[in-house]
Design a protein that fits this description.
Length: 667
């Protein structure tokens, strides 16, 4: 009988009441995968629907195939520049399984032609729509109307660099938005990012970038989360070849590239997106109220439909196959996992298995992670989930859903709460430690103190929350303003504390490493369509007269230390000692000793730290990270050349200045 118990349950006795349900999930996934193999040969072939539907040039007979799945439509025709948008001249014929089709001579279409489908829907609506699997969509600058664009360049992109994501033992993720990645108040390009920003990321030591807003979206200010054309790389930033160049350059720097992929919902726009595509409300999405995501004003996919799962799986394969992405950050996974989209308290295991889960979405996610693992073993697959679904980041063979990591979303929320509601003197390091280290054993977390969410207008980054308006006047290196002194010290402590104790990976949003001031505000009517707050002011960190350089240097030291010692691939951090009254905590991870003094006033000249069991009296340590060093904007209260010896009581005696964090390495 024990051989039928999923490993997920064996490793967590609290899951025993749900053994049958977890086993059912496993069986259901395997049954679907076996049926696909029987019909298609393998999962990858099934997930290649985008190579069949859409607009494709066939070299072998010099023809174009045009196909579209629109089962409820009454008629479909191809319109565009090639036929002066004539709705009658190029009709498609309805074939099997709701797929409309036509074939055209090779000279009919050419590279960069604008095209749409004219669809008379089940509701008798007559609309021009962008093909669902179009691989490029562009916006007219005058009318703001989007069209599909034939993309068939004469020369294919020639890749220069190979990369294997399995070489990354723990992801150190730099979260990026290409459009706002430059200093000028405008939209920046894939190539500008590759040439100007990637070298900064590489120098800092990050081994992974996460690209936001790549899938085409009609509203720039949505941060890319209201997707309209799932197979099209955002044309605001350049061509598909430009995006390939960016990824290729990253691979040349041994940096993995993740796509922030949106399969949790879709834009509700009819003109640009999939909503009511064939004249019904239930082609891609659930019908009625269930098809609406009220929190995001968007549409919810019907994961119970085979065609929808095939569409989304094809989308996953496309980004790996065509652009060589090394994995994904799946957006909005909590919304996918539950019928209620996560709007309940997850206070009982029933909430994960019997009270609200969307089993069709869980099936789809298991299929997606299986496909990704087959296509590119070693891919990084991150789930944005705040519910804590057990097994989300365990293999499907164990009863899990197959993600490699989940975002530790509770950590940034905790830091904001602490900064807003507690005085520095009341910060209890033991409480902070318990929040940081509270995660399911065996399920890898991406720790972060802040992401793009905390940078948006209406919120504040940690740096801005700590220093606010004083950053405008007192960031000169010779200015010892108390607000800035406090802010810089705590910014470093918060980030190192989170990295050491919070997970098995790390994430930072572009610019936050140097305390980028102000918030993010995309061009919109409310700010007169200004890009003033939608950029990154690299000149601040490059200016030797300003203190942003110190935070940047600390981040680089922290990241390089993490990489050198493979810290986040090691076992979770072990707390060695804590004294809440002193506000001092010591911990060990990867044989590195970390000491945090959160005390705003008191330094401790002879503080005794208990050492791990594998350390013996006489062992010596040296300083490898010091937030109080001159390079890191501190007060140079520690001797960088000093060594520390473990005494006969199995303790290390150190000087730990106020509001300082340090790391010690055994010599």
């Amino acid at each position: 009988m024990s051989e039928n118990i999923p490993l997920l349950v064996k490793n967590d006795p609290w899951l025993e009441p749900y053994t049958d349900h977890i086993h059912w999930r496993m069986t259901r996934l395997q049954d679907h995968l076996q049926e696909i193999e029987k019909r298609y040969g393998n999962l990858a072939t099934y997930a290649s629907a985008h190579q069949y539907v859409g607009i494709h040039y066939r070299v072998h007979d010099d023809t174009w195939s045009v196909r579209e799945w629109a089962p409820g439509a009454k008629s479909v025709s191809l319109v565009g520049e090639f036929n002066q948008w004539n709705k009658q001249s190029h009709p498609l014929v309805l074939g099997a399984q709701g797929v409309w089709e036509t074939h055209l001579p090779g000279e009919t279409l050419k590279h960069k032609d604008l095209v749409k489908l004219h669809i008379v829907g089940a509701d008798d609506s007559a609309r021009d729509r962008i093909p669902a699997c179009i691989q490029r969509a562009v916006q007219d600058e005058t009318s703001k109307d989007y069209s599909g664009q034939v993309w068939q360049p004469e020369e294919a992109y020639v890749w220069q660099n190979d990369f294997d994501p399995s070489t990354i033992d723990c992801p150190l993720i730099y979260e990026c938005h290409v459009g706002m990645s430059g200093e000028e108040p405008r939209i920046h390009s894939y190539r500008e990012f590759a040439d100007e920003v990637l070298p900064r990321i590489c120098a800092l030591g990050y081994n992974t970038i996460q690209l936001m807003a790549v899938q085409e979206h009609p509203y720039y200010g949505s941060f890319g989360y209201h997707v309209s054309s799932f197979f099209a790389a955002c044309s605001r930033f350049g061509t598909p070849e430009d995006l390939k160049y960016l990824i290729d350059q990253a691979h040349g720097m041994n940096i993995a590239v993740l796509l922030d992929i949106v399969h949790s919902h879709a834009v509700k726009n009819i003109a640009e997106g999939l909503n009511e595509f064939d004249g019904t409300d239930h082609q891609y999405f659930h019908s009625g109220e269930r098809g609406d995501q009220p929190q995001w004003d968007s549409k919810c996919f019907d994961y119970g439909k085979d065609e929808v799962r095939q569409f989304l799986l094809s989308n996953t394969l496309f980004w790996i196959d065509e652009f060589r992405f090394d994995g994904f950050r799946f957006d909005g996974v909590t919304s996918m996992l539950y019928h209620h989209h996560g709007s309940v308290a997850f206070d009982h295991y029933d909430k994960y298995f019997t009270d609200g889960p969307d089993e069709d979405a869980i099936l789809y996610l298991g299929m997606a992670t299986t496909l990704i693992n087959q296509l590119k073993p070693g891919c990084i697959v991150v789930a944005e989930d705040m519910s804590g679904m057990p097994g989300l980041c365990r293999p499907t063979s164990e009863g899990g859903i197959g993600f490699t990591h989940r975002l530790a979303m509770g950590i940034p929320d905790y830091w904001i709460k602490l900064l807003k509601h507690k005085q520095d003197e009341d910060w209890a390091p033991e409480e902070i430690w318990n929040v940081m280290s509270n995660r399911r054993f065996g399920e890898a977390n991406i720790a972060y103190a802040e992401s793009h969410d905390q940078a948006l207008v209406g919120d504040k980054t940690i740096a801005f929350r700590l220093m606010d308006k004083e950053m405008y006047w007192h960031m000169n290196i010779d200015d010892e303003h108390p607000v800035i002194e406090r802010g810089i010290a705590l910014h470093k402590i918060i980030r190192l504390f989170t990295l050491v104790s919070g997970g098995e990976g790390w994430l930072n949003f572009m610019g936050n490493e140097f305390g980028h001031p102000e918030w993010l505000d995309f061009p919109r009517e409310g700010n007169d369509w200004s890009s003033h707050y939608c950029r990154r002011q690299w000149s601040l960190v490059d200016n030797p007269e300003l203190r942003y350089q110190h935070l940047n240097a600390f981040d680089s030291t922290m990241i390089h230390l993490t990489k050198k010692h493979h810290l986040l691939a090691c076992n979770p951090a072990q707390m060695l000692s804590v004294h809440n009254a002193d506000q001092v905590l010591a911990a060990e991870r990867g044989n590195i000793i970390f000491v945090f003094n959160l005390n705003p006033q008191q330094s401790f000249p002879d503080y005794h730290i208990s050492m791990p069991g594998n350390v013996k009296p006489g062992d010596q340590y040296r300083l490898v990270l010091d937030s109080d060093s001159e390079e890191h904007g501190g007060h140079c209260r520690l001797d960088p050349s000093a060594t520390y010896t473990v005494n006969e009581h199995h303790q290390l005696s150190i000087y730990i200045p106020s509001r300082t964090c340090i790391a010690l390495e055994r010599i």
